[in-house]
Amino acid sequence: GDYDNDELHSTFAKWNAGRLQSFLVEITSEIFEQEDDLVKGRLVDQILDKAKQKGTGKWTSQNAMDLGIPVPSIDVAVSMRELSALKDERIKADALYDRPSAVHMNKEKL
Question: pTM for this structure?
Answer without folding.
Answer: 0.61
